[in-house]
Amino acid sequence: MRALNDVDIELLEQRKRGRLMNSLSGFKSANVIGTTDGMGHHNLAMFSSVVHLGSDPALLGVVLRPPVEPENGSHTYWNIRETGVFTINHVSDSWYRKAHQTSARYDAEESEFEAVGLNPVFRCGFEAPAVEESSVRIGLERVDEWKIPQNECRFIVGQIRWIEFPEDAWAEDGFLDLEKLGVVAMSSLDSYHNTQQLERLSYAKKDKPLTRVTGDGEPPE
Amino acid sequence: MRALNDVDIELLEQRKRGRLMNSLSGFKSANVIGTTDGMGHHNLAMFSSVVHLGSDPALLGVVLRPPVEPENGSHTYWNIRETGVFTINHVSDSWYRKAHQTSARYDAEESEFEAVGLNPVFRCGFEAPAVEESSVRIGLERVDEWKIPQNECRFIVGQIRWIEFPEDAWAEDGFLDLEKLGVVAMSSLDSYHNTQQLERLSYAKKDKPLTRVTGDGEPPE
Hints:
By secondary structure, chain A is an alpha+beta fold. Chain A has helices at residues 6-11, 14-23, 75-83, 96-101, 112-116; strands spanning 2-5, 28-29, 31-36, 42-47, 50-55, 58-64, 85-90, 120-121, 130-131, 137-147, 154-165, 185-187, 191-200. The mean pLDDT of chain A is 95. Chains A and B meet through strand 1, helix 1, helix 2, strand 2 and strand 5 of A and strand 1, helix 1, helix 2, strand 2 and strand 5 of B. Strand 11 (154-165) of chain A pairs antiparallel with strand 1 (2-5) of chain B, so a sheet runs across the interface.
């Protein structure tokens, strides 16, 4: 085993450290976040920091880099501050390259949708654009935000206002089969992965063996 | 496409809603967190909410459910409050069932290590136990915490104090090959997945095609 302590980590060359540190959070979701500035300019940007926060109310969190002045970037952040809404769209194996390309530095007036070749779709009354090519689309409203004191990153809390996904990927017990939809996982800053399900496991109980779960729900007692 | 709005979501049966909402954050890391209560009782618990927060300083975040009174559970949370430290250990395909079993309700005096058959290992001077079977082990110190106002979940910020991983999975450019190590991804509450890398992609630039990255770093300009 290779062992590094905090000083060893600090002494790593900056980009090498970035790739290693971004590997340490394990496999991550691959999402593009859609926003608008309220003047008709759409924005789309890649994120791998979406996290589940709660089911009732239905909340997702996302980590954003420390915002710079609006004229210099951080369009996702400032658009969410301006309009209060955003969409999270799951990336699948048929268009992950386009999703990755959204992380290039485009001007505020340029639409990443146009630049990379993805189509915006809108839900009636909801300002932020979603991605037509995405099989799982989520509309959220910003309900809270925390500035992480150590590095000024922002942790945005979004409440889910609507979701869209293919009916046939939704199991009877509520499980949504992302793998069947070709949704990809990420690792570190740039690695995209398909998945192969090992199994679903029953709710763990003391002194009781785990069993395999099918989409119809928990196995009988 | 099946569409649900916030009222539809609220009206779902509770467990069905839980499984769907937990699916919506995409593929997630599978980790067990090791802690101690400072009186020699070790705890190990499954989490899928670890998120990258920063590389300098090296920070990871993790979401914990709203803590209950210490005598009723939330051992991970109270142990971190007590000792200030914890370990994050990546789960691999050879022992994910043991990891899942740690989520059963064990008493504070019981060690999940013993109950599920995993071995604690200690680093000199660091109170929290790590997992011998894990190929990626991370020791962290709690540096901040945010109580999420909407549901009282806790978002813990941990600074990385040490890491251990197999040397041969570490690419020259800093990328750590989790897939090679058999590290699994999770989806929803109970689904475990192996991964298959599609590719690593170059840093995205405007008007420049993406290229495949090898472990030696960015392709030449």
